[in-house]
């Protein structure tokens, strides 16, 4: 392979709760994301009343999507990744019948994409679930949540079987270890036993969704989604090497179960030495054998691991704390920029899983300046993406089978970590600030024209 394959899926990725707004419109129930007013890192707030949150309107994609999709089409997108808000379909998670208005909304959204031959790549659950299931069942700690999720998955597979051929189960499924409310709907301060039990249920639910997808839409592909938390050893000390392996395995564990259909041996040892006893039934083991068709992941940064953490100051990753690498520069939010790490990770994941890969998030969060004439010169963003795509191309030449690349936030959106608008990822600028002021007007940035050329040249021009 000399470069990007002919059928490479170029595009962008967003998530329902970061773009749609309309948080309580047309029957939608309260989701766990609606309760995180200040993002994943903030406190959880009850939302039975009308407390204001930037996500309530977000970028108003719910109403403005035709215009936004037209702009994506202008850049030449082949694919758009977004998610379905589960609480639009089953507002509390356990209703007997789905909400027709919610189903109709996504049907129209996918029809709009089809007008421009943009394939939808749909995440079933992107950092949200109906809060009703948290209140009634305690979230994923309860086995019943698996059945509710399966019912939701079956509902959307049946409804969109002619419209959607690429699916993902849970966004960054490994992040539940670090933010259990966001990932598995656990309130308070759950212990490791509870977190891993909830994760187990979610892994079973993911496998059941894979099976349902294969049964209902035989010509579709369904993948998992991992937060690519690549670690290097801080030094070449053998103990750092072992620590690096341990940290990488913490997140690769999820992929191991989803791709191989079973728990790896090393985690059994970890469970028994840490007094973690999971309730895993015979039928759970059978369900887990329904493995994914491809492996997708997000990649923003890398970090280091060491057996002597007290020697180094921790840096700010988004969800996972990483020790800074002295050879790398960081963004304003402390995310270390490492394009070569992406080539390494692509090779490593492909060696490990031998499944097609899909990069479903990668991007640069930065503040932008709108010039008087309305132009936005975001050469820093172009540079970040270019450097990463150069390494993606190298990985393809190394022999990695890669289905596509969807950069994160092709249009400015609300950040998941901190619920900010000013941490912008887009090729398209949205006029809205952290306080919620602004006209919501869309503007093309310099990166818009750059990415358009990248796509039209199929990655020859970078
Ligand atoms: C990923 C998430 O972790 O990172 C996205 O899947 C998120 O939802 C993205 O937006 C970037 O993080 P942030 O905090 O800058 O929005």
Automatic annotation (TrEMBL):
Record-annotated membrane-spanning stretches: none
Residues forming the catalytic site: 361 (nucleophile)
EC number of this enzyme: 3.2.1.86
Protein's GO biological process: carbohydrate catabolic process
UniProt-listed SUPFAM superfamilies: (Trans)glycosidases
Top-rank EC class of the record's enzyme: hydrolase
Gene Ontology CC annotation, any one: cytosol
Keywords assigned by UniProt, alphabetized: Glycosidase, Hydrolase
Molecular function GO terms recorded: 6-phospho-beta-glucosidase activity
Family the entry assigns: Belongs to the glycosyl hydrolase 1 family.
Protein name: 6-phospho-beta-glucosidase BglB
Organism expressing this protein natively: Vibrio ruber (strain DSM 16370 / JCM 11486 / BCRC 17186 / CECT 7878 / LMG 23124 / VR1)
Gene name as annotated: bglB_3
